[in-house]
Design brief:
Layout lengths: L2 H9 L5 H11 L3 H7 L1 H7 L4 H4 L3 E4 L8 E5 L5 E5 L6 E4 L1 H18 L3 H21 L5 E2 L5 H11 L3 H8 E4 L2 E4 L6 E2 L3 H16 L9 E7 L10 E6 L9 E7 L19 H12 L8 E5 L2 E7 L16 H21 L9 H9 L4 H27 L5 H4 L1
Antiparallel strand pairs: 1-4, 2-3, 3-5, 6-7, 8-9, 9-10, 10-11, 11-13, 12-13
């Protein structure tokens, strides 16, 4: 087995084999999916460069790429578009966030049918937008009224979606009662033991809430979502909400694991009580308004993040750029601005840089080109690692049926 295969297998050891096999198969598909599934490897292979460390520390999401932005209904019931994955969140110099976003643009170019010149133009768009938003020094946010282009299209579509239609995509109506669709694409069945454990957990959780009946569990399944976290213990829970059948809600319960970024960062990390606390706290700091039901909980003696379910469909369909580069530039511009606003919003917390330092960094002109150069090095490394992974995968190194 190659070194790459060993690193990947070791990192994913202990995960649910059924969903892990899906992850391994998806990663074989393209370098971009491979990049999304191997955040740990990206930072392990990231070359040491002056541009990375010569910058103010900020609260990064840690896994910044095209696919980690989406729309969600916030706890104020309004719909926002923002970064929505903080599993890898940690304190790090700002370029650690940006180099992964730039690399994802370059690596995704083939999937999106972008020319080299177009991909590099998008990288320049990203760093210019990020720098300008930092230099302006005020954090903002994106909602339907302020969104443009493909982001606006997404938010407009969601605004007209009814709760019943949303539930119909994920559930089957049996009389007046809904049950989750266990289709092998979005959800897998749970064991009787898992169902009982999750139901008992939700009962205990609900007991401390103002309206316990809202959280009454109707059904439970193992959730299939994302790429990097496939195989991590994760459930979709159908709850009573505001009444059956069309007032039901969907909840996501996901185990929080240590950040795979922080070991590679030369910045001391605060001591968190649990990894779920880290994920939830950074998400609350970075987003203008956070997702409904977001909180850190304990389940089965381990730390989990509880939140409203965000469908993977609620993301910008990047493939729909239709050969019109300005459509992609608008999306990248929005993502870069959201990152800058998040860093400003969370500034001054637990040794992250204050706004004055971030404004000064945004005004500097010495980090942009070196960062793009570094991203091109990372792109080459990802391509080499993906090839090594494909060779190992095709030889059966990731065939989990052989290891059972």
């Amino acid at each position: 087995m190659s070194d790459i295969a060993k690193i990947i297998a070791s990192f994913n050891a202990g995960r649910d084999p059924e969903r892990l096999a899906m992850k391994y198969r998806a990663m074989r598909g393209s370098p971009f999916v491979f990049l999304r599934g191997t955040c740990h490897l990206f930072y392990e292979r990231l070359p040491r460069a002056k541009v990375l460390d010569d910058a103010p520390p900020v609260w990064i999401c840690g896994d910044m790429h095209f696919e980690n932005f989406g729309s969600y209904k916030a706890d104020n019931r309004l719909i926002y578009f923002d970064n929505n994955d903080f599993d890898e969140a940690c304190l790090a110099p700002a370029p650690y966030e940006l180099v992964r976003l730039l690399t994802s643009v370059l690596v995704a170019a083939s999937d999106l049918k972008l020319s080299r010149a177009q991909a590099l133009a998008l990288c320049h768009t990203a760093i210019d937008a990020y720098g300008a938003a930092l230099a302006f020094g005020k954090s903002r946010w994106i909602e339907a009224e302020t969104a443009v282009g493909m982001v606006r299209d997404l938010l407009d579509a969601l605004a007209s979606r009814t709760r019943a239609a949303y539930l119909d995509r994920r559930t089957v109506l049996k009389g007046k009662t809904r049950v989750l669709k266990v289709d092998g694409k979005k959800a897998l069945p749970v064991s009787d033991e898992q169902r009982a454990a999750v139901t008992q957990f939700m009962q205990q959780f609900a007991a401390a809430e103002p309206n316990p009946e809202f959280y009454r569990t109707l059904d439970v399944a193992r959730r299939i979502a994302g790429t990097g976290s496939l195989g991590v213990d994760r459930y979709v829970i159908l709850i009573e909400g505001k009444g059956s059948p069309d007032g039901n809600y969907l909840i996501d319960l996901k185990e929080a694991l240590p950040s795979s970024v922080s070991p590679h960062v030369r910045v001391a990390q605060p001591k968190w009580q649990t990894d779920a606390q880290r994920v939830v706290e950074v998400q609350r700091r970075n987003q203008a308004v956070s997702q409904a039901f977001l909180r850190a909980v304990d389940f089965n003696g381990r730390s989990y993040v509880l939140r409203s379910l965000q469908p993977s469909e609620d993301r910008v369909a990047l493939a729909d750029w239709d050969g019109k580069l300005p459509r992609l530039e608008e999306v990248i511009n929005s993502m870069a601005e959201l990152s800058a606003w998040a860093h400003l919003r969370s500034g001054g917390r637990q040794k992250s840089a204050i706004a004055d330092d971030l404004i000064a960094f945004g005004n500097r002109r010495d980090w942009q080109l070196p960062l793009i150069d570094l991203a091109t090095q990372c792109e080459k490394q990802v391509a080499e690692d993906w090839k090594a992974y494909c060779d190992a995968y095709d030889r059966g190194a990731f065939d989990l049926t052989q290891k059972a």
